[in-house]
């Protein structure tokens, strides 16, 4: 009969079982450690494949900048590190947008150890300056302003209250502030400033470290008023981001003059409630022009003031817009018009945009551009002198409603999105 | 009497068997234990070397990756000669007690496209080990 009290030999059996369990644990630990480190190395190789894939996107951007009909490369070796294949598509994309899909292989597409694929949408905009607001001598922004794109100046940038600087589209690479001036308060934040994560404010002015903190002697003053986005602050910057642009008049006037145009030899004053037919032409006013309130711009074109004297070279009074949206009484399309002043002697501003103005185009002045209240601009504001923006103004960087010949930079490239598949 | 004698012999046998191990048994047991210990020791040593090596490799990749991110955030104009195969930038750092040397080479593929190769070299087991990461960077308008 089996007796529980008979324990003869149990110690040996127990010891063997314990030894086996401990051995198994030891082996498991060793293999787990090795697996973990192998996994880490695999992850690093995977990072390497990601750099290769990203290199494919950069390669495609470079090719597209040279030739917009470029549609891909099957195989390209990036030194001995890896290989990528890249394709470009415009299907289901807005105009001038290119979807780039790139796959990186390490060490090569044949028997890869790691593969990563990324997709990026890139906007290559022909004939658009690389800023939403740009001015040589300075930019003053008052309150409740939204700028979707970069602010750039060779002078001082003063920001008022509730200023929102955002990318031109969600995920786009712009939405930063740059000044090349080396003066103190090169960027002066006087009220609440809201930015997006990953953006930057760069100035060539003195650093906080050299001035003993964020004092009025620093290049970017009152950083504590930045309410969101935690932008990268760089004073004493020497990078190309703050290289002086020199000219903030991006128009090629010779080419502009050669476009289909209508010339007006005297100062023109368009009365209220008029419709101005742009007709796809350049309207060259040699002595200045004023558009009174409730003016509708029909079609698309450019208003160009090439000389004259008075208060304003080009004045838009209130309620200036494009045609009414069918079926929506009181709602209007933006006017597809560029406003350009290249010369003249004006006691006020070259270009004065008053209230309730909605335009899609380039606003380019020689010495001063002012935008008052409730102004919406889809395009760019630039000035060879200053830009002053008052209240409730939104500037959205983007393509112009009518072609403008641009000197210098033939196009601007903005990375709209980047994600891994 | 006969029955009593048998019992004594039987008891004596039992006592004799429980006395301990023979030298042969001991030798076999020792051999088995030594074999097991040696096997485990070898496994541990090999794993330790392998894990250490992989840790160094991971550190090397991180060292290279940090620089790559830094370069990708630079303005295009700021990345430049002396061109490949010359070393553009070199740096040595000690990580986890091991000295790593990072060499950055930049090659101009064309006027607006550059290739960045970052190699990290370290000594391990009397030999130089190397990893390399590369990418392309375009000059965007």
How are the SSEs placed, and which strands pair?
The complex is a heterodimer of chains A (421) and B (141).
Chain A: H1 10-66, E1 72-78, E2 82-89, E3 97-106, E4 114-126, E5 133-135, E6 138-141, E7 145-148, E8 151-153, E9 156-159, E10 163-166, E11 177-179, E12 187-189, E13 193-194, E14 200-203, H2 208-211, E15 220-221, E16 226-228, E17 232-234, H3 253-257, E18 261-264, E19 268-270, E20 275-277, E21 282-285, E22 289-291, E23 295-298, E24 300-305, E25 309-310, E26 314-316, E27 320-321, E28 336-341, E29 345-346, E30 351-353, E31 357-365, E32 368-371, E33 375-383, E34 386-389, E35 393-396, E36 411-420
Parallel strand pairs in A: 5-8, 5-33, 6-9, 6-34, 7-10, 7-35, 8-11, 9-12, 10-13, 11-14, 12-15, 13-16, 14-17, 18-21, 19-22, 20-23, 21-24, 22-26, 23-27, 24-28, 25-29, 26-30, 28-31, 30-32, 31-33, 32-34, 33-35
Antiparallel strand pairs in A: 1-2, 2-3, 3-4, 4-36
Chain B: H1 2-17, H2 23-72, E1 89-95, E2 98-110, E3 113-124, E4 127-138
Antiparallel strand pairs in B: 1-2, 2-3, 3-4
Question: Your description of this structure?
Answer:
- The complex is a heterodimer of chains A (421) and B (141).
- Chain A is of the alpha/beta class and 421 residues long.
- Helices cover 16% and strands 39% of the residues of chain A.
- Chain A is built from three helices and 36 strands.
- Chain A has a 16-stranded parallel sheet that branches.
- In chain A, a hairpin with a 7-residue loop joins strand 3 and strand 4 (114-126).
- Chain B has 141 residues and is an alpha+beta fold.
- A four-stranded antiparallel sheet of chain B has the order 1-2-3-4, covered by helices on one side.
- The longest helix of chain B is centred in the middle third of the chain and has 50 residues, at 23-72.
- Chain B is rod-shaped and about 90 Å long.
- The termini of chain B are far apart.
- The A-B interface holds A 23, 26-27, 30, 33-34, 37-38, 40-41, 44-45, 47-48, 51-52, 54-56, 58-59, 61-62, 65-66, 78-82, 124, 130, 239-241, 243, 409-413, 415 and B 36, 40, 43-44, 47, 50-51, 54-55, 57-58, 61-62, 65, 68, 74-78, 107, 110, 112-113, 115, 117, 131-141.
């Amino acid at each position: 009969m089996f007796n529980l009290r008979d324990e003869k030999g149990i110690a040996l059996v127990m010891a063997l079982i314990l030894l086996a369990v401990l051995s198994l644990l030891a082996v498991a630990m060793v293999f787990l450690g090795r697996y973990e480190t192998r996994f880490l190395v695999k992850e690093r190789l995977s990072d390497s494949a990601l750099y290769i894939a990203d290199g494919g996107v950069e390669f495609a951007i470079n090719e597209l900048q040279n030739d917009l009909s470029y549609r891909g490369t099957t195989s390209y070796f990036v030194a001995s590190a890896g290989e990528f294949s890249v394709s470009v598509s415009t299907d289901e994309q807005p105009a001038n947008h290119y979807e780039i899909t790139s796959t990186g292989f390490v060490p090569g597409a044949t028997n890869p150890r790691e593969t990563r694929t990324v997709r990026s949408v890139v906007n290559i905009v022909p004939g658009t300056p690389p800023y939403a607001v740009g001015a040589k001598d300075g930019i003053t922004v008052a309150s409740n302003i939204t700028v979707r794109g970069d602010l750039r100046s060779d002078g001082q940038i003063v920001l008022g209250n509730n200023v929102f600087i955002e990318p031109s589209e969600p995920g786009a690479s712009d939405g930063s502030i740059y000044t090349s001036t080396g003066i103190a308060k090169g960027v002066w934040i006087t009220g609440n400033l809201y930015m997006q994560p990953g953006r930057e404010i760069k100035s060539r002015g003195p650093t906080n470290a050299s001035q003993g903190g964020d004092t009025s002697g620093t290049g970017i003053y009152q950083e504590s008023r930045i309410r969101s986005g935690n932008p990268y602050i760089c004073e004493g910057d020497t990078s190309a981001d703050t290289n002086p642009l020199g000219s903030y008049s991006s128009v090629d006037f010779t080419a502009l003059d050669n476009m289909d145009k209508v010339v007006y030899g005297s100062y023109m004053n368009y009365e209220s409630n008029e419709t101005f037919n742009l007709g796809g032409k350049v309207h060259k006013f040699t002595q200045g022009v004023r558009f009174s309130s409730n003016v509708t711009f029909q079609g698309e074109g450019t208003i160009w003031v090439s000389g004259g004297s008075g208060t304003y070279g080009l004045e838009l009074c209130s309620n200036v817009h494009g045609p009414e949206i069918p079926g929506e009484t009181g709602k209007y399309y933006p006017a597809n018009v560029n406003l350009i002043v290249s010369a003249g002697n004006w006691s006020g501003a070259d270009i004065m945009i008053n209230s309730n103005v909605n335009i899609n185009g380039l606003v380019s002045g020689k010495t001063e551009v002012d935008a008052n209240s409730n102004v919406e601009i889809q395009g760019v504001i630039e000035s060879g002198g200053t830009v002053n923006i008052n209240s409730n103004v939104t500037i959205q960087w983007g393509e112009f409603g009518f072609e403008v010949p641009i000197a210098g930079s033939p196009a601007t490239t903005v990375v709209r999105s980047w994600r891994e598949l | 009497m006969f029955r009593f004698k048998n019992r004594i012999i039987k008891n004596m046998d039992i006592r004799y068997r429980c006395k301990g191990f023979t030298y042969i048994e001991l030798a076999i047991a020792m051999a088995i234990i030594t074999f097991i210990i040696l096997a485990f020791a070898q496994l541990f040593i090999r794993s330790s070397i392998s894990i250490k090596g992989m840790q160094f490799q991971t550190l090397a990749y991180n060292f290279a990756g940090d620089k790559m991110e830094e370069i990708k955030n630079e303005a295009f104009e700021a990345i430049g000669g002396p061109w490949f195969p010359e070393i553009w930038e070199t740096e040595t750092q000690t990580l986890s007690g091991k000295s790593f040397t990072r060499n950055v080479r930049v090659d101009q593929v064309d006027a607006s496209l550059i290739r960045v190769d970052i190699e990290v070299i370290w000594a391990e087991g009397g030999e130089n080990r190397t990893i390399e990461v590369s990418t392309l960077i375009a000059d965007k308008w």
